[in-house]
């Protein structure tokens, strides 16, 4: 890649469009042909980033999924790991997630200690990321698997202070997530509150199913919109949401 993810996100300019990332769970694809179709639509739609990972990857398909994405698309591929075992050196980089909204020591630092030797030797671009779970209306896979309680959707102050703490600790990206299959997306008021308190890029995902919801999150302050489950059910949503996100300028 010509530019790193963080360098690109920090670029200034009034005409710079917001970014759209597609989150792909290897367990959701039955064959490489289905991944290839996603690659084709993503390229045509101008998707900015492909994230690969899940709370539970049961079929061992992570490596093949990343290889296929690298072969059939020029879009940067970053790992979104749910565990220290979800590492592939075929990817461009990895969001090194520290679950700062929870109090599970394993996901704050424990898993990172186990992964550190391998990551240090790899050529992956490491992006230290403050990961914040927000209540999306019901228990999601990530909240269950992480054994943590999400920040209540109406507690913008808690989210704001958590994001501020993450930045002060040196994390370079804040990722607010309502979780895969969330009943509703993160509120605009919470996104606005968090974005106004930090100077690092803000990623928002979970519960976004329509172009209108994506636009509202962008206008509230999200720098990157992440969609996963919704496009698994309707691949054409990739085109619609990508166009909507790119219509909003930073």
Q: Any overview of this molecule?
A:
The chain has ten helices and eight strands. With 250 residues, it is α/β, with parallel strands linked by helices. The protein has a single domain, classed as FMN-linked oxidoreductases (TIM Barrel, Alpha-Beta Barrel), CATH 3.20.20. It has an eight-stranded parallel barrel with strand order 1-2-3-4-5-6-7-8, surrounded by six helices. Strand 4, helix 4 and strand 5 form a beta-alpha-beta unit. Helix 7 (188-195) packs parallel to helix 8 and helix 8 runs parallel beside helix 10 (237-246). The model has no long low-confidence stretch (mean pLDDT 92).
Which H/E pattern describes the elements?
Answer: HEHEHEEHEHHEHEHEHH
Largest sheet: 8 strands, parallel, barrel
How big is the Rg?
A: 17 Å
Q: What CATH architecture do you see?
A: Alpha-Beta Barrel
Helix content: 25-40%
Instruction: Tally the structural domains.
Output: 1
For the biggest β-sheet, the strand order reads 1-2-3-4-5-6-7-8
The CATH superfamily title: FMN-linked oxidoreductases
Beta strand %: 15-25%
CATH level 3 topology: TIM Barrel
Terminal CA distance: 22 Å
Q: In DSSP terms, counting alpha (H) and pi (I) runs of 4 or more, how many helices?
A: 10
Q: Average pLDDT value?
A: 92
The total of beta strands comes to 8
Q: What is the CATH C level class, in words? A: Alpha Beta
Shape: globular
Helix-strand makeup class: alpha/beta
Task: Point out poorly predicted stretches.
Answer: none
Described by its quaternary structure, the protein is single chain
């Amino acid at each position: 890649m010509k530019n790193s993810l963080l360098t690109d996100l920090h670029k200034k300019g009034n005409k710079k469009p917001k970014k759209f990332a597609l989150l792909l769970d290897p367990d959701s694809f039955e064959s490489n042909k289905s991944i290839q179709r996603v690659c084709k639509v993503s390229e045509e739609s101008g998707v900015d980033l492909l994230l690969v990972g899940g709370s539970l990857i049961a079929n061992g398909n992570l490596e093949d999924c990343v290889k296929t994405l690298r072969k059939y698309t020029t879009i940067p591929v970053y790992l979104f790991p749910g565990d220290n075992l979800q590492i592939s050196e075929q990817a461009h980089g990895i969001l090194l997630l520290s679950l700062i909204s929870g109090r599970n020591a394993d996901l704050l630092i424990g898993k990172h200690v186990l992964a550190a030797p391998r990551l240090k030797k790899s050529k992956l671009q490491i992006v230290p990321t403050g990961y914040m779970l927000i209540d999306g209306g019901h228990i999601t896979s990530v909240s269950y698997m992480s054994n943590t309680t999400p920040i209540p959707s109406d507690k913008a102050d808690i989210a704001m202070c958590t994001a501020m703490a993450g930045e002060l600790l040196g994390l370079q990206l804040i990722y607010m997530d309502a979780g895969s299959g969330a009943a509703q997306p993160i509120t605009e008021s919470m996104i606005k509150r968090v974005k106004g308190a930090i100077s690092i890029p803000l990623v928002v995902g979970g519960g976004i199913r329509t172009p209108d919801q994506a636009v509202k999150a962008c206008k509230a302050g999200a720098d990157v919109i992440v969609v996963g489950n919704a496009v698994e059910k309707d691949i054409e949503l990739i085109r619609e949401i990508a166009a909507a996100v790119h219509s909003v300028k930073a």
